[in-house]
Amino acid sequence: MIDNISWLAIYPEIVLLVMACVITIVDLGVKSAGRTLTYILSLLTLVVVAVITGIYASNGNTFYAFGNMVVSDAMGNWLKCAAAIAMAVTLVYGRGYSRDRGMLNGGEYFILSLLALLGMNVMISGNNFLIIYLGLELLTLSSYALVCLRRDNTAAVEAGMKYFVLGAMASGFLLYGLSMIYGATGSLDIGEVFKAVNSGLIRHQVLVFGLVFVVAGLAFKLGVVPFHMWVPDVYQGAPTAITMIVGGAPKLAAFAIVIRLLVDGLLPLAIDWQQMLAVLAILSLLIGNLAAIAQTNIKRMLAYSTISQMGFVLLGLMSGVVNGNVEAATAGNAYSASMFYVVSYVLTTLATFGVVLLLAREGFESEEIADFAGLNQRSPLYAGVMAICLFSMAGIPPLVGFYSKLAVLQALVASGSGLYIALAVFAVIMSLIGAFYYLRVVKVMYFDKPITAAKVHAPLDVRAVLVVNGALVLILGIMPGGLMKLCSDAVLRALAS
């Protein structure tokens, strides 16, 4: 018999699953011209999920359900809340674009988006290898379908095929690694795996062999070098509204499973996975920033930017343990800095792609950097929002991107390790190099002649959300304390449980 606590833990997932089924049925009776009802139901569902998870997170309680297969804690619930809000913003931004390109002839856009969020929630809640993998597959299968949603577009279908093939390979890596660890420890439960590994009775070589494949699978989901091949191709080939889905909320879920697997389950192997994360971070910062400089397509540029940004997240994740020693204060600062970085990155990315979507019109994608020429003369508001987001990604104060980078660098330096301090210096140098390609877009917007005199128009809801989105990038940079404390408290509660 399943107790009430178990059902309570998965209320957000139940709401998403039920509403995805309801919207599928409702969509059968809606004519392809509108889809307004489907859109409203999807937004209401996301708002309800955000409210439920926000309430759970505010209570700060941690409880396990379904035989410890599912965990509900503050960190997970805040990430679920952020993911639901991010998906709602994505649907608001992408509705007009999707309608103009025939992607709303059916309700698949909204239904698959809800199922993708359901997969993220399952990943975030997973306290068992099997649950995490099921959530991951639900997310990735929904993402493959979304990328190929424009079946008449060769670039989208090609991107979907590349994503599917490479994603299947990465899922195989992760599944093989998890099976190796299961074979060594005899348990799928993350807590039991931690106890078994910490006992020191299992051969270290077997555990490290499985760990290599687990880290490889996680690296693909984060899109870091050398598992980054899919990122620029999918970002460019997918319809921009879908690129925003792939590049936004899933990063929150990927961060969560890294914490669940590496920190909660495999912390005794920290010395091993820290070295792997360090190599991945260095390569991502180097190749991501250098490759972005050469791009003329803004979606590919933002793809390589994402790779470099995830390098910073890995730096935060690897700095929680120093010389194999775990201290609550050090680990809390490091992991909360990474969580703050992921949340601020998603916030900034949404506004950036929101402006890219606004410039796109029927028959014209506005994907080249040259298409942003003279945007300030056509729409000072949207040019201002885009400039704020680009400055934030470059780490220029007083924007949230600056504080998120500073928090990660502080966590590295606070460790006192010479290697970590050297990594912090390297990260700063890479950020300076990366500032070039962000500032280049700002220069094009403000100093180049516009290629068209047409004004940029947007519906009231899109305009309002975009303004709030851009304002938060600035406000959270000026006053980051509230969000930083929220992340710190959530991570410390998760570690304590």
UniProtKB/TrEMBL annotation:
Name its species. Answer: Comamonas squillarum
EC number(s) given by UniProt: 7.1.1.-
Residue stretches spanning the membrane: 6-30, 37-57, 77-94, 106-124, 130-149, 161-182, 202-220, 241-263, 275-294, 301-319, 339-360, 381-400, 420-439, 460-479
Q: What is this protein called?
A: NADH-quinone oxidoreductase subunit N
Please explain the role this protein plays, according to its UniProt record. Answer: NDH-1 shuttles electrons from NADH, via FMN and iron-sulfur (Fe-S) centers, to quinones in the respiratory chain. The immediate electron acceptor for the enzyme in this species is believed to be ubiquinone. Couples the redox reaction to proton translocation (for every two electrons transferred, four hydrogen ions are translocated across the cytoplasmic membrane), and thus conserves the redox energy in a proton gradient.
Q: Which UniProt keywords apply?
A: Cell membrane, Membrane, NAD, Oxidoreductase, Quinone, Translocase, Transmembrane, Transmembrane helix, Transport, Ubiquinone
Record-annotated NADH:quinone oxidoreductase/Mrp antiporter transmembrane domain positions:
127-430
Highest taxon of source: Bacteria
Where this protein primarily resides, as one coarse class?
membrane
Citing just one GO molecular function, the answer is: NADH dehydrogenase (quinone) (non-electrogenic) activity
Record localization: Cell membrane; Endomembrane system; Membrane
Q: Name one Pfam family in it.
A: Proton_antipo_M
Regarding protein family, the annotation reads: Belongs to the complex I subunit 2 family.
The subunit structure is: NDH-1 is composed of 14 different subunits. Subunits NuoA, H, J, K, L, M, N constitute the membrane sector of the complex.
Q: Which reaction does it catalyse?
A: a quinone + NADH + 5 H(+)(in) = a quinol + NAD(+) + 4 H(+)(out)
